[in-house]
Amino acid sequence: MTVAVSGDSMLPVLRPGDWLVVRVGGRVAPGDVVVARHPGRPELLIVKRAARRAGVGWWLESDNQGARGRRDSWDFGAVPDALVVGRAAARYWPLRRAGRLGTDTRGALGWHAAVTLGRPAHRSEQ
């Protein structure tokens, strides 16, 4: 699956216009970048960092907590496992920034962006 990032709440890790490859159903660990369905708007996909397990779901956080329009688990609580689509494996566009996305072992940092499904990725509104 591919997704396109929009919004500034992922800075500096991800930027608007970054395109990601997502491993659907990939095993998630704390610190991983994931794509999930927004709990209140299931048609909207969000990109976050899995900060920690929270019961039967994941606490997902933004890297840039001060970004305008940022929404994460601080706003809607833990995201149920069923809404976690997969783990972001790599950025493939822009080419000069292409590469694998690693795990942030610091834990609490997270990231957010509104994204849409696409082949190739399509831009979306936050």
From TrEMBL:
Domain Peptidase S24/S26A/S26B/S26C: 3-65
SUPFAM superfamilies: LexA/Signal peptidase
Taxonomy, superkingdom: Bacteria
Cellular compartments annotated: Endomembrane system
A Pfam family the protein falls into: Peptidase_S24
Keywords (A to Z) from UniProt: Hydrolase, Membrane, Protease
Gene3D superfamilies, alphabetized: Umud Fragment, subunit A
InterPro entries the UniProt entry points to: LexA/Signal_pep-like_sf (IPR036286), Mito_IMP1_subunit (IPR052064), Pept_S26A_Sod_Ni_maturase (IPR014124), Peptidase_S24_S26A/B/C (IPR015927), Peptidase_S26 (IPR019533)
Keyword set includes Membrane: yes
One Gene Ontology MF term: peptidase activity
GO biological process, one term: proteolysis
Main subcellular localisation: membrane
Protease found in the keyword field: yes
Protein name: Nickel-type superoxide dismutase maturation protease
